[in-house]
Amino acid sequence: MASTETHAHCLRCGRRLTSAHSIATGYGPTCARHIRHAAVDATDYKPHQIASARELIEDAAIVPVRGAVFAVVSTDGTETYLTHPTNCTCTAGLRGARCYHQLAARLLLAA
Q1: Among 7, 59, 91, 106, which is least packed, fewest CB within 10 Å?
Q2: What is the pTM of this model?
Q3: pLDDT in tens, 63-103
Q4: How far apart are CA 28 and CA 7, in angstroms?
Q5: Distance spanning both ends of the chain, measured CA to CA
Q6: CA distance 30 to 111
Q7: Which residues are in the SWIM-type domain (predicted)?
């Protein structure tokens, strides 16, 4: 799920990124720490979904669009979905199931 795109500004706060690591991940060190420590109720999610949500954030494969809506990239990188903490346009989300895209959105909003 690695992203080849680089970001000049933090995807969370919009500040200019200066370090190579921050530019590659899309988040400055403070925002990355807030995201890592975000308190979200993940009891309805399986461990692999939690790991996938964190990986999605680390790979900068989830980008804010407007308000609580995010654009996310599929695991294989071939599709893009719109997600919100309560729904998603991926296959699981359209069936009404909770997907890791929704969890990633929750984590970002909680940070």
Answers
A1: 91
A2: 0.73
A3: 889 889 999 998 888 999 999 999 999 999 999 999 999 99
A4: 10
A5: 22
A6: 10
A7: 70-110
